[in-house]
Every structure is written in C-alpha cells, then in structure tokens.
What we know:
Layout: H1 2-20, E1 28-31, H2 34-38, E2 45-50, E3 55-62, E4 67-72, E5 75-80, E6 84-90, E7 97-106, E8 109-110, E9 118-123, E10 126-131, E11 143-150, E12 156-162, E13 171-179, E14 182-187, E15 207-213
Antiparallel strand pairs: 1-6, 2-3, 2-6, 3-4, 4-5, 7-8, 7-9, 7-15, 9-10, 10-11, 11-12, 12-13, 13-14, 14-15
Amino acid sequence: MQIKRSLTAFIVAASLMLSATSVALGQQRSMGDWSVVQSLSPDEQIVISLKSGKEVKGKFLDAAGNEVTILRKGKHESFAKDTVAQIHHVKGKAKKGQWALIAAEKGGKKAPPEILKFVATFADDKMTFDTTDPEKKDGPDKREFSIVLDPSKTPKSIDLIKFSGDGKGDKSAGIYKLVGDELTICSGDKGDVRPTEFSSPEGSRINLITFKKK
C-alpha cells in the first residue's frame, strides 16, 4: 500500500527525533562560515553535506587550508571547501528508548490502522523502526536510518537519510515541533521540497505525523 510505505519511511525520522530531544535538539549547529569550522576540536562528530547531495558523517580532524578532514570508518577522508554545502556539528547522542506513533496522515487522508502499531527503538545514532506485531516483526518494514537536525531554522528542520537496504542514501526533508511529550513532523516524499507549515493538504504528497513518548 503506497500510503503505508511512504509513511513508514517518514515515521522513522519522527521517532528518532523524539528519542533525541533531550540531547540533540538545540545542540546541533549548522555551519557555513569556514572560520567556525576551523575552530572545531579534534574528534567532534560532524555531518558534511556535499554540493553533490551526498551526506558524510565522521569525527572532525582538521580544516587547514581549503579542505576539511574527518575520520570515517577508520580512514582519513578529505573534502575540498568548494565541494561542501554545509557542515553540521553534532554534540552528544540520543538516549535509548521507544516512541509510539499516535496519528498519521498523507495528502489529507488518515493512515491505515496498522501504521499505529509501529514503534521506534534506537541506540546512539542508529535508528531501528519496526512493528509490534509479533507475526511481522523483523519483516520487510524493518528499516534503519540516520538523521540531521537543524533547530536553528524556523521552523526547525530534519533530514532523514536511509543508510541500509533498498534506497540506501535516499534523503527526505521535513520540519518538526515539540509540545510537551508529543512531537509533530511534516515532510514530503523523497526529493520533495521541504514543507514550510504543518499541514497535509488533500491530494498532496505531504506526510503529517505525531508521536508520543512511551
């Protein structure tokens, strides 16, 4: 079912956002000024957004001259300044926990009831999304993602990047707001323009999702 597939991908971003609220929100800086990048301390975690659209995550090593060098998967990798679109500085790690989906709609239509059986579980920067149905657990709907947050934007933004399985590297852009223990996230499908308001007009490809802390 198309609405289920698209909502499943977006729900993962919402879940990890809830999980990371106490640490990641407000602690991730988005940097475009090269002098700010050069002021980072070695071993700080960063995410590099390249102009090609690729996202690269690793430990900051150096930004001397016109390139930035990181440690990624045990190897040193350098990226020229003119190939970098943005660098996100991430402090801390999300706390472990589970987050339940309580409402979802796409294009003004409510999601099918089975969507509300899904929960998100994560450790550090790894997010696992799966159903609570014991007969379907660990099935084709189980997915893993990483996210990039920018709470300095208005509204606050979130990018969801799939890092395993079919569609590896795919990214969806969204916005979020947190009120009490409920989080609302709004996003289009992969490759769509980032929404500017929290609504899902009839006939659109926009997802509107709400989660509650378990």
